[in-house]
Write a structure and sequence with these properties.
The structure is a homodimer. The first copy, chain A, has 19 helices and 25 strands. By secondary structure, the first copy, chain A, is an alpha+beta fold. In chain A, the strands form 5 sheets. Chain A has an 8-stranded antiparallel beta sheet, with no helix packed on it. Chain A has a 6-stranded antiparallel beta sheet with strand order 6-11-18-17-14-13, with no helix packed on it. In chain A, strands 1-2-3-4-5 form a 5-stranded antiparallel beta sheet, with no helix packed on it. In chain A, helix 8 packs antiparallel against helix 10 and helix 13 packs antiparallel against helix 14.
């Protein structure tokens, strides 16, 4: 942020109450647009449906009794869920009040808020279930949840503000909101000033409260941190939490989560201080962040489950409903965003939601424009990044994700150069995601499970090389945070889309270079996934390269001999202790294939190595005393002792199983004769046949003008 | 069949050529209705879409070269798939010819048939891949496939008949169809005269050919068997293969498959010999069979996978498109069949399909009327049967299936008194189905795998008691075929829906009585699954009662201690050899619960026993050298040594996980204090609490007027 910007900012912050007469509501739904939104709720199907759902929630709330329990339980427990329900009800009733004009909804919100105001200050400053003392909440076990509560509740208050008598407003503000802000900014000052998604929820809670209560000081500290220096606070978060491409270093799951307070607060800033041009801040960083979030998903809507991620999260998630609506309505997003909004099946009942629903009703929707792209990581965009290669239509897309990003802070996994591969609407080579039963109290209070650390974060849980059965950086997050892979090359267009990156710090004295590509050849209707993984060292190591597959193995070039009479864990630590080792088979000629049937299609992975290798099959589940792990299966290319090793694999997507007419076609692969020709520091060369046609691929690691070459 | 019927039948058979001038086409699509169907193809969306799909297939066929390989491969192999493709193309082109009137489609069929005619007689009478010599095909490895081929091809021929020159017709008929019929009726006389679904395909192939080629003799033997005695053939099959309720003893998967030749042939009979009133034969047995087939499915469309069954088969299956269209258009089926047709998303391009598509377009569809019902088994309806209990709407239905049917011939499983349980669109307690990768040649040629016998058919693979770790009837199908359970009671309505049945022959000296019910109590929104399984013997036995669950265990009343360091098979034979034993835990007080999270909902099974019991967890996968088995998990209630044992369980469906908003509610069960009060020959009594309210259930095994009683 340059000096001039700072001056402008300070000026606006100090003067907000002078510049803008206070109007309510004035965040997602604004006084000036109420009439239009009301009309839209009867006219445009998506808005109508969204409002009806919200009104049904509000009506259900009104039928029940207001219940404000003394804070007591951890995540997922009764008091936790009740307070969550309460803020949802406050927001639903606030919206219902604005659209219907019926006083009963406003009365409910008022009564609820007075109820909280009567109790809040009696509750201890430390929640009884708090686990980390500097992250304790007051209403919930974590300060994070208190901030989320406030972001929602203050919007509800704004929506019914005009319907509450001044005396009651005074009670609510002084006995509830001011103490809540005090708790966030003082008792939880550390969180409030953190450059972290918890910090974003905190500053959004305080900043929104500042606007609604007309307290410029709240807004100023929200924007610039407790000391108003700008070293922390919302703007610093916008500067530091996103890469210039709008990537959030913790990964797509947390990116989605982090987005909500960013965009709601931005919308409020834009209402109250339009001159700040917050949407244009840092070259439209918010729009980029929303776009990057959408591009970090597969066509089935699921986010790439990199780092700690709950896997059934999709772009239908509420946070992205806000993001998509605002990006489209106010940030100049394209009409392909309407495709996402349709998939979401709802809009925010708001000015933005009106525009989205109207334009959908008018048939402006275009298919979402999934792209192949490289998304840089790090505040300056120079800490590696995420490569995304796509091939095919939105109906049947191949997608390769290559993680050459940095560690990703506390939620990062030790998954340097990991790849994920999707096809046909499904995961082909997948990531375990996080080990967590979110919000299920009987499972460690709904929190991350111990196996998140012992399994999910470990290198072997990913589709990347493990050296000597240890994890990258010996699973030390602080060390890992200091390094990021070096991206050698990226091309996201043409018949050979490719990304290549190098990691030299994960294991001492081992240099890893991975090059993954989607390659189209005229003989095949789908692209080939080409993967070249080179490990180099001065001394000998064991190199294991797992492919975490879905489905069932239907064929292999060699006889797989699973242990039939007993299973043992594959190792003792770094995640191997959680694997049952099913088989270890040597592969004649260091080359072979495995065919997997997955979601009615076949995937044949042809592989070869620069020296002898064996294939191990493994299943997740060992050393799991509390049955915390999900199932999962891998085939692992393994070289037990060598200094340099190159693993090459070609995965062909082929054939079709039609269970309705009971036909199978193309169950055999069209690829054969994969052969490594040479592999060295400068170059890797290999050949293979497709339907009898010989192809050769050369990778020139140091030649960006001719990085990868396919010859026939 | 009474004497008069026989006389009438013989009369009509002999006189068909005299009574009806030969018209073409005259099976699914008839000359008189062509104009209407043509118009309908442009007017009614479902017919239009179905025709467009068929025409696209026909056009694709025309773009390729006709290829008639010498028979060579087993199921799923290239020549197998090509011949399958050929008959599909013949039928598609036949339909395309009738609707568009374009000669090119007819020419394709003619060329293809002449091609076959030029080769057919050169092929050996025994297919090189034939495994069972009296079931060999000539075009395919199995005679069954040859018959399916002919059923399709003869329809295609009928459709283009008028466009083929008489000389070519003669060649096709004499060099292809007559030899095909000769092969079916003579070389494969055993299959042709079998009372079995293979026999139905055979008689349909021959009968349809008889009508189209105007060969009354073919029709007569098709209807009454080779010797024309009526002891075999189509009518004998209608008499013997279905129970009076239209149940086909092999189970829903084969019922669906068997239906197609039954209904197509019936349609032809109705066209050529309407006076036979074939649709009304045996009290409308065909309509009943179609209806029973649909009622043998869950709301997700999947057939109950009883006996050998491929699990992803649904009512969308092509056979049932024919069945539903004909049942609706010609057999007086109700408008709720249109709901099924909509789900199928297509109709047969035919007279019947026209009516279905038209009525759907006119908005006549009613939701499919899923019923609770008892479906009798056996030709006389006195060999047990299938109990189906349902509760809730089509959108969120609980469904309990209770197998008290007979063995089910060669495809039967040793699953006496097995239950399946569905809820929320998903399997809760499921059946493994068949061990088979259908049509995947690398998997035992696409045929049943050895594990179908060693695992899938065995008792322990089902949700029913296993005695002394052996299977029912020691897995001897011939012995098992002689016995069926005795149904004690069935009630499919009211707040207590229940079925009870007894099996006394499966294990010597052991009497098994199971009573399963869906019980509604006012405190809960969903019914409780109540299951009372009583085993009685004069001597001590081990009784194991597995529940094959889907999802993940999230809670239990006792500490589960899984083996963390190694797994061993649970036994040596009768399927136990395929289970990895994960844990064995004794349960204090012989009572406890296990909670499973499955598809965003929770299922808590409270259980107790009349004597001490332990709970074992097991996973499918041991002794599987060729990796032929799918995954699966069970908790097993086990009593190692006792003469009489009663297992009682109550499974509550509760709560909700919403991954989009990340909320969880109702994760804890509302049921508690399950207690067995007494269990004897006459009566079992137990009590339990729901939200603090005490309930008591008494089952009076010998009192049909008061079989089950719920008191508060």
């Amino acid at each position: 942020m340059n000096y001039l910007k700072k001056v402008v900012l300070v000026f606006f912050c100090i003067n907000i109450s002078l510049l803008h007469a206070q109007k309510h509501p004035n965040i997602m739904l604004t006084k000036d647009n109420i009439a239009g939104v009301r009309e839209g709720c009867t006219k445009y199907p998506l808005l109508q449906k969204s409002f009806e759902q919200m009104k049904a929630d509000a009506d259900k709330a009104l039928q029940g009794k207001i219940y404000i329990p003394v804070p007591q339980d951890g995540g997922g427990g009764p008091s936790h869920e009740q307070h969550k329900k309460n803020y949802q009800n406050i927001l639903a009733c606030g919206v219902a009040y604005q659209i219907t004009g019926e006083a009963k909804y406003a009365a409910y919100v008022k009564d609820m808020l007075l109820g909280y105001a009567a109790q809040y200050e009696k509750w201890p400053l430390k929640h009884p279930k708090s686990k980390i003392s500097n992250q304790t909440g007051r209403i919930f076990w974590q300060i994070l949840n208190d901030c989320v509560w406030q972001v929602n509740v203050i919007q509800g208050y704004d929506l019914v503000y005009d319907a509450i008598a001044p005396g009651d407003r005074k009670t609510i503000e002084n006995k509830l909101f001011v103490p809540v802000v005090r708790f966030i900014t003082q008792s939880s000052a550390e969180t409030f000033n953190r450059i972290h998604n918890h910090g974003t929820w905190a500053v959004a809670a305080v900043g929104l409260t500042g606007y609604v209560l007309n307290k410029p000081d709240y807004v100023e500290i929200a924007l610039k941190g407790s000391d108003k220096s700008g070293k922390s606070g919302y703007l610093a978060q916008l500067d530091q939490l996103f890469s210039p491409d709008g990537y959030y270093t913790e990964g797509p799951y947390y990116q989605r989560y982090a987005l909500l307070p960013f965009v709601i607060f931005a919308k409020a800033i834009n209402q109250y201080q339009p001159a700040l041009s917050i949407y244009n801040y840092r070259n439209n960083i918010l729009r980029k962040a929303i776009n990057t979030s959408l591009q970090s998903s597969y066509t089935n809507g699921a986010f790439f489950p990199i780092n700690d991620a709950i896997k059934n999260k999709t772009v239908e998630s509420g946070e992205l409903v806000y993001g998509v609506d605002l990006a489209y309505a106010e940030m100049g997003g394209g009409e392909d965003l309407l495709d996402v909004a349709q998939r979401q099946g709802r809009v925010v009942v708001s000015d933005a939601g009106l525009k989205v629903a109207k334009d959908i009703a008018e048939g402006k929707t275009k298919p979402f424009n999934y792209k192949s792209l490289f998304i840089s990581d790090g505040p300056a965009g120079n800490e590696g990044g995420l490569g995304v290669l796509r091939s095919g239509t939105n109906q049947d897309q191949q997608c390769l994700v290559f993680k050459a990003a940095s560690q990703g802070m506390g939620h990062g996994h030790f998954d340097r150069l990991n790849i994920l591969y999707y096809d046909n609407g499904s995961e082909v080579f997948s990531d375990y995601g996080a080990a967590r039963f979110i919000n299920i109290e009987s499972k460690n209070g709904g929190e991350y499970l111990p196996e998140n650390r012992t399994w999910a974060k470990q290198t072997v849980a990913h589709n990347t090389i493990t050296v000597d059965k240890t994890s990258a950086f010996k699973a030390n997050a602080d060390v890992a945070q200091q390094y990021h892979p070096e991206v050698l090359y990226f091309r996201g267009e043409g018949d050979i889309q490719v990304i290549s990156a190098k990691e030299e710090n994960a294991w001492k004295g081992v240099s890893l270079t991975r090059t993954s590509a989607l390659v189209r050849v005229p003989e095949l209707s789908k692209a080939l996934l080409v993967d070249v993984f080179k490990a180099e060292s001065a001394v000998q190591h064991q190199y294991d390269l797992p492919f975490w597959y879905n489905g069932y193995i239907t064929d292999a070039s060699f006889k797989i001999n699973p242990d039939t009479k007993g299973l043992k864990p594959a190792g003792e630590k770094y995640g191997y202790q959680h694997l049952w080792l099913n088989s270890t088979d040597s592969v004649p000629g260091a080359a072979g294939y495995i065919t997997v049937m997955n979601n009615l299609r076949f995937y044949t992975t042809h592989f070869c190595g620069s020296s002898a290798l064996n294939v191990q099959l493994a299943t997740i589940g060992a050393n799991d005393p509390n049955m915390n792990l999900f199932g999962g299966k891998a085939f692992i290319l393994s070289q037990p002792s060598v200094s340099d090793q190159t693993f090459i694999s070609l995965t062909e997507s082929h054939g079709k199983v039609d269970p309705v007419v009971e036909t199978t076609s193309g169950a055999a692969s069209s690829v054969s004769s994969l052969k490594l020709l040479s592999s060295g520091k400068q170059q890797t060369s290999f050949s293979f046949d497709v339907k009898g046609k010989r192809y050769r691929i050369d990778i020139h690691y140091n030649d960006k003008s001719n990085f990868i070459q396919l010859t026939k």
